[in-house]
Amino acid sequence: MGHERQLVKDMMEPRHFRTLFISDVHLGSKAAKADFLLDFLRHHEADTIVLVGDIVDGWRLKRSWYWPQVCNDVVQKLLRKARKGTRVVYIPGNHDEFLRAFPGMHFGGIEVVERMMHDGADGKKYLILHGDEFDVVVRNARLLAYLGDWAYDTAIRINIILAAVRRRLGMPYWSFSAWAKLQVKHAVNFIGEFERVVAEEARKNGADGVICGHIHHAIIQDMDGIRYINTGDWVESCTAVAEHEDGTFELITWRALASSVPALAAIEMHDEGELAPQAA
């Protein structure tokens, strides 16, 4: 049990990064994995945390109010980190666009900006923005964007039902909502075009790379000399991007990591009964 105990201790120790980038949490949506994000924030520290838009889902909250305690817990966790010295920057997206009326303002230590230039530890510059301004659907057809948002909600509900059925049949997990979303966007070459346009915006601004969210498609890749980084989302993929002290970037999928921690903690609790995860 000694090896397992040490492994649990190592897993429970927060990882520290130079910068963390998180987007598309959609607090206020029933599809948001706020509990996963809260767990992630407990296990990760950074000198700077950049919230790259759509943290709060104002669109859904306007339709019907949904704000469970875990949403408050996530907000309080971020505020607590800001009070303890972490720089927290909030770049609004289209779902939390109401915050775009407050550029330069600070709320509980959280700084609101429209976009920013990030100086990497390796000397490279990264343009950070949410990315919705380059989404033709959101920019030119607002009603269609709302309808697409509703359709995605419906797909999420279908996904829950299908997952239950497949589980009963002994079949592996398969995300209908992710499949449906990618089918639609592949039909119009949306993702590739979005990445190309956003990378070009970074080039126009004299940046070496760009960090964005919006399309819920996490990736780190080079595009014609521009480093394109998308942070993903906390609705399905539960991903964040971390910058190490040497300027390298890491894409973290918390779903995979979180699933292993409780099992290890259970081994430790059974053995000594003293290393339960601590609340925030």
Describe the structure.
The protein has 280 residues and is α/β, with parallel strands linked by helices. Helices cover 42% and strands 20% of the residues. It is built from 9 helices and 12 strands. The strands form 2 sheets. The protein has a 7-stranded mixed sheet with strand order 4-5-3-2-1-11-12. Strands 6-7-8-10-9 form a 5-stranded mixed sheet, covered by helices on one side. Strand 1, helix 2 and strand 2 form a beta-alpha-beta unit. The protein is globular and about 50 Å long. It starts with a helix and ends in a 9-residue tail after the last helix. 33% of the residues are buried. One of its GO terms (molecular function) is UDP-2,3-diacylglucosamine hydrolase activity. This is UDP-2,3-diacylglucosamine diphosphatase. Keywords: Cell inner membrane, Cell membrane, Manganese, Membrane, Metal-binding. One of its GO terms (biological process) is lipid A biosynthetic process. Pfam families: Metallophos.
